[in-house]
Amino acid sequence: MIDVLADIVRETRDALQDPAYSAGIPTPSKAPRASLSSAVTRARERGALIIEHKRVSPGSASPRLPVRPMDEFVRLAVAGGVDGFSCLAARPRFEGSPRDVAELCGLTGRPVLFKEFVVDPTQVAVASRTGASAILLLARLARPAYGVPIRELAQEAHRAGLEVLLEFHDRTELSLVEGVAADMYGVNARDLASLRFDRSAAADTIRAAADLRPMLGMSGVDGPEEARRFWELGVDGLLVGTAFARAADPVAFLRSLRRAGGGDA
Description:
Mean pLDDT: 94
Number of strands: 10
Order of helices and strands: HHEHEHEHEHEEEEHEHEHH
Number of domains: 1
CATH superfamily: Aldolase class I
CATH class: Alpha Beta
CATH architecture: Alpha-Beta Barrel
Structural class: alpha/beta
CATH topology: TIM Barrel
Largest sheet: 8 strands, parallel, barrel
């Protein structure tokens, strides 16, 4: 079986050798960063929404997405009641950049997640420079086959003033990262090894991780019905990207995802 994630990890390590990876990122303000975990916790009753900026959605039937100018992206998300942002910084396959994250951070006071396949402390340092509030770490990468020191990267992130969002897909991944210091958690409905959706595995993982809070449901939220499935599993918030990019009316789309009875922002 082809392991797409293993290929992405190799491509990411290669990309980090290019000096352009960290070029052009301004030194961020020393003002306190907004807390992503606190934003999700505050909004859990109505269901927190974290909206992602991305250009490509690998694994989709039509991977390339409509991309709005960053200021328009922020304006529409805020009008829809967003609680925080995520931004793809991964260049391989996703055509993202740390500069995208820095641009987004410069346009909002809401917390921003630096979303990349983090395998090296260099990425943590760059994430801190962008002004991001948090960084994503994948529990699956703690497997020996990938050789990524998740525990050390989490410690490095905290030293850099970043929160850690620890992501799972399969419930077997929960035991891989026991003792890893994380500030919040997420369960991805997409299996990153195959890029296929396995909502049953994700649901099992959310149930098994019920004590880990705050918790995000991630990927595959294309409308109110899929959002409802996540809410019924007890997540505190949703991370949504592809469907927001494709929505004809992004503001109405975001408002349609709220937890039933939770109200607006």
